[in-house]
Amino acid sequence: MNRALATIIAASVFSSLYAGLVGPVYPIFVLQKFSGAITDIGLLYATFYITSAGLKLFTGRLVDKFGKVPIFLIGGSISAACTLAYTLNFNITQLYMLEILNGVAYALQRPAFLVLLTDVTSSKKRGRQMGMFDSVDDLAGAVSSLVSVLIVASFGFQFLFYLCSGFQATSGLIVLTSRKRR
Questions:
Q1: What total of structural domains would you count in the chain?
Q2: Is the pTM of this model over 0.85?
Q3: What is the pLDDT of residues 158-176, one digit of tens each?
């Protein structure tokens, strides 16, 4: 595996740790903190994905125009800030607004990340390299999913969100520093 691919995989692992840690406990967070209805959980997820899907064509163009690294870093910074904001939310309406902003962050980050990944894979081994990337990514998500409940039970949601915000920031720093080495 080449160094550039290993770096991109490392950056992705930190994003996967975030998703794996938050994903399993997010419904519990919504129900406990906001006394939300079960329908709110589905609507919150839908809000995130609809926002993201609606913007990716536009944000993909931003990647083409301004470059993959700056757009990735902007998306990652917004995502890290959103994760910190989970500790500040006071009502369900604010949580919906936060999911819209999180959807914007993901819409910025994902196309940029896919271009970064494509750039570091060789055309002759791209399928194998992307398969390796996806396997490592899925394993990071699986492991973090297993420990997410333990973290919340032991340290609470705020600690989890601080940790995940740090993971998002670390992902961006890895991409930024790898760019300077090339």
A1: 1
A2: yes
A3: 999 999 999 999 998 998 8
